[in-house]
């Protein structure tokens, strides 16, 4: 088992998945860092790190490239750009990436959450997605999604996901913490 006192969760503190991961981190005594930026609303405000414009710019990417990687169109809007930059910092900080959402037929993940998954693939980070529709964990291996029970294996990890967390999604998150750290 991992030493929970040496572990850190990096997230964004949004309603749903990110808040649930934060609640579990707090319950198990895992350090939590929530990235944000001025004017960005979060539900979970524990250990907020407000990224400066300069820090956000380090995670900048062409909206054209983001659109191509995600198989959808992102328009040049400051808020969308800032959110994608924030997600860059979350993924860049954690060695492992956990996401709760929906895997689409094109192998991307629905919504902005999918950007965390694409960055994890790009950075060669272990990435696991709990697909709420299939009620199953999947990991990205050899260019495809494979059923596999997710496990926290590294001291730094990132969490992102849908704001519409189901009871099964919440249970999957809690089970990650039980399996990694035992009882709280």
Explain what the structure shows.
This protein is an alpha/beta fold and 184 residues long. It has one domain: Rossmann fold (3-Layer(aba) Sandwich). It is built from six helices and eight strands, in the order βαββαααβαββββα. It has helices at 17-28, 53-57, 63-70, 78-93, 113-122, 167-181, and strands spanning 8-11, 31-36, 48-50, 96-101, 127-131, 136-141, 144-147, 156-161. The chain has an eight-stranded mixed beta sheet, with helices on both faces. α5 (113-122) links the parallel β4 (96-101) and β5 (127-131). α1 runs parallel beside α6 (167-181) and α4 (78-93) packs across α5. The longest helix is centred in the middle third of the chain and has 16 residues, at 78-93. The chain is globular, with a radius of gyration of 15 Å. The relative contact order is 0.20. The model has no long low-confidence stretch (mean pLDDT 92).
Notable characteristics:
184 residues; alpha/beta; Rossmann fold; eight-stranded mixed beta sheet; 8 strands
């Amino acid at each position: 088992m991992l030493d929970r006192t040496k572990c850190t969760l990096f997230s964004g503190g949004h309603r749903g998945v990110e808040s649930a991961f934060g609640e579990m981190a707090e319950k198990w005594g895992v350090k939590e860092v929530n990235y944000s930026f001025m004017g960005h609303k979060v539900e979970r405000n524990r250990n907020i790190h407000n990224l400066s414009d300069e820090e956000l710019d380090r995670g900048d990417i062409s909206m054209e490239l983001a659109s191509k990687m995600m198989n959808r169109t992102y328009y040049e809007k400051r808020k969308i750009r800032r959110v994608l930059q924030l997600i860059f910092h979350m993924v860049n900080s954690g060695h492992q990436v956990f996401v709760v959402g929906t895997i689409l037929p094109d192998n991307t993940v629905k919504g902005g959450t999918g950007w965390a998954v694409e960055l994890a693939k790009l950075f060669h980070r272990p990435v696991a997605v709990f697909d709420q529709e299939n009620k199953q964990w999947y990991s990205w291996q050899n260019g495809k999604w494979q059923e596999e029970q997710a496990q926290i294996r590294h001291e730094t990890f990132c969490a992102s996901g849908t704001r519409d967390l189901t009871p099964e999604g919440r249970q999957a998150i809690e089970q990650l913490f039980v399996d990694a750290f035992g009882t709280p």
